[in-house]
Structure formats: C-alpha cells, structure tokens
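Ticket reopened. Same input as before:
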Amino acid sequence: MGIAERKEREKEDVRRQILDAAHDLFETQGYENVTMRAVADAIEYSPATIYLHFASKDALVEALCFEDFGRLSAAMNRAPLPRNPVDRIRALGRAYAAFGLANPNHYRFMFMTAGDWKKHANEVDSPPARSYAVLRQAVVEAIDQGFFAKNDVDLVSQILWSAIHGVVSLVITFKPEQFPRAPPRPGLVEASIEATLQGLLVGREDKA
Amino acid sequence: MGIAERKEREKEDVRRQILDAAHDLFETQGYENVTMRAVADAIEYSPATIYLHFASKDALVEALCFEDFGRLSAAMNRAPLPRNPVDRIRALGRAYAAFGLANPNHYRFMFMTAGDWKKHANEVDSPPARSYAVLRQAVVEAIDQGFFAKNDVDLVSQILWSAIHGVVSLVITFKPEQFPRAPPRPGLVEASIEATLQGLLVGREDKA
DNA sequence: TATTGATACTTAACGTCGTTCATAATTGCA
DNA sequence: TGCAATTATGAACGACGTTAAGTATCAATA
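Engineering reply: fixed in the latest deploy. New output:
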C-alpha cells in the first residue's frame, strides 16, 4: 500500500507549500495582504486548490499561527525555567513579550481580533490555553509558597496575563511616533512586569 | 447671505445623517459591517454621496470615533475627579475601562488596529492624546507628592495605561467562554488597577 | 425672463476580495 | 481497456471601497 502513502505525502506537500507561502506573506505583509490569489500565485496553483486543503482563509491563517505559537511553546519548555515561581513568571513574561513583538501579525491575529477561530481557543492545545496553563501553574506555586496572597488563582493569572498583553498590544498597535506624547520608554516591558509583580507580592522587599 | 448659510446647514445635516447612520451600524455590527452601501441605504442616498462628505470609509469611522471619545473626555472632565492623585488614577482607570467595555467597536478601532488614521493620534486633541494627558498629569502629581518613586513620568504613565488597556482589550477580544480555563473573574478590572498601583507605590500600607 | 455656472447627487463601472461550482485532467484499480 | 476517485482548474458570483462621467437643481447674473 505504498501508493496511498505517496499520495498522502504529495497532498501533505502541497499543504506545506501553501502554509509556507502564506506564512511568508503573513509575516511580512500582515493579514489583509495574505490573499488567496497571492498565495496561489506563490505556489503556482490556482486559488481554488487552496480550498482543497483549507476551508477558508481564516482556517489557513489559524493553522499557520498555531504552528508558530507551537514553536514558541516548545522553545519555552526547552529553555530552563527558574524553579522560583516569581522568577519564572518574570521569565515567562519576557518570553511572551519577545515573541509577540517579534511576530506582531501572529500576535494580532491570535490575541487582538475577534474571529470565529476562537471557538477553539478554549481547547487545551490551543496557543492561548497552552501559554496560560504554564503561567497559571507558576501562580499556583507562588501562592502556595506564600509569595502571593491567597487569592483566586485565575484572577491573579489574568492580572498578569493582561498586564503583559497590554504592553505588547499597545506597542504593536502604535508606532513609536504615534504614541501620545512620548514613544514607549525603554524597559517598559520589564518595568510593567515588575510593577505588576510587586503589586501582587505580599512582603515586598524581602520576597522579591 | 441667508442662502449660503442654509446650504451650509443642509450640507451639515447630511453629514450628520451619515455620521449617525454609520454610528449605529458601527456600534451594533462593528467595523466590517459598516458598509458604504449600507450607510447609503440607511440615509437613502447613493453610496457616492458619502464621498462628498468623507474622504474614505476610514475617515468616516475615525470621525465618529473621535466624536464619541470626545463625549467620554467631556464627561470625565465634568465629573469631579479626586484631588488625591492616586485615587484619581483609580477613577480614571475605572472610567477608561467602563467606556472601552461599553463601546468595544470604538475601542477596537482606536486602540487595537493599525490604520492610517493614527497619523493624527499624536495631535493634542486626539482621543489617545487627551486621555493620556489627564493620566500623565495625575502621575506627575503622584510622583511630586511622594506616592510614587521618582521615575520617568512617561514610563510610569505607560505602565498604567498598558495595564488597563490590557484588561480591556483582552475582554473585548475573547468572549467569556473563550477565555482559557476560566472566564474573566469578576473584579478583574479593579484588581488589575490595584495591583499595578500597589506595585508603583513607595510605602505601601500607609500611602494607599 | 432666459442663461450661466456652480453645487449636489446618481448611475455605472473598475478592480479587488473570498469563495464556489461545473468541468477537465490525472491516476490507481478492476 | 474501461471505471471511479481524486486533484486541479477556469470562470463566475456577490460583496466590497472607490471613482469618473453625467444629470438635475437652483441661485445669481445678463
């Protein structure tokens, strides 16, 4: 039955080509410029062919975003995360921000647009769910070990997530010169994480 | 010269009709569903007529957003703001969040999309600039009066802005059931403001 | 009053997009 | 060799933002 397998491989290959072409367009030109026709041109197929592999443009972009976020997750799990939960939250925040700022179009699609795809956002393997799970675990430990006050774990996790998301999304949305009054200060990401952490810690100086 | 004035009034009237129709569509159905054709239908003019009053769809949406944000600014300046700068920051954050959550489409267009209009974001009377200015003033006072440590005023302002923006934009983007693991906890906005403030205050218990 | 000139407005179209569908080509299998 | 299924395509649909060319309206002028 090598034939079915070869066909499988060929089909998978076209799918890869589509994803790669779309990825390049998406990364460099953003969502609106990922045109089904442009993708088709890039891989020298007709636009209709894409629909044999992806149900819609959104499904295609979702697929490539999931892939890239998966790469982030993998890289983050491979890196040695601090044992101390507070230090870990710091490290996670930095990594999260770095990825978002390095991949603004991915980030925008995943975390800043409505989109039907978010029906899957809940599922355990979706990028938001995976990122959130790691953070949440650190928060559990931070509370257990007395760094944070006893509190709703998800409330604390959401505070932290929204804080770092706020920085990332603002910087993605406004070009430096479009910031009101002053461009984003250097160290804003760091300072933002730090302020939020400090606000959550129970005994400040000695614990941080 | 009553004739020119009447014509002026009539022109202004059509402009108003366009803005109102677009406003309704925008508020209830969001940016993509504000179609030039739909607006034209609503006011019983041809689509081309809109272009006699607005250079583009984006210019139209920008105009109505500016109007509504102006209403916010006005309301906020009319309300009595606490003299204590820290309390004032709290109040500002609450008002900002309330407006954003009540007008998600406005908020999304203004603070969560790229858009050419942001060339004007810098100008002193733009909604971002106006909101930011009020916050910044409170931060200046908070530092002067020793509530916050001496620091770059804009850095601190950006920390606060991004924190509250993070909450608002997350809640706007994800429906409750789409949140990973747990829907936004009640009091998230409050807790987020509080955590950030606490993180910035110099002597916690006694000053807050 | 008849003519002019500007203004407001519309009709029709252009080019783009995502998407679909009928049809053709290819390919493994009986 | 003929059949069935898969893969690919060309052409089209309907919707979008936008524009150019043409028509109607009406105050101002001769």
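Residues 3, 7, 35-37, 47-48, 51, 56-57 of chain B lie near DNA strand D (CB under 10 Å from a C1'). Chain B touches chain A through 53 residues (CB under 8 Å). Please confirm and we'll close it.
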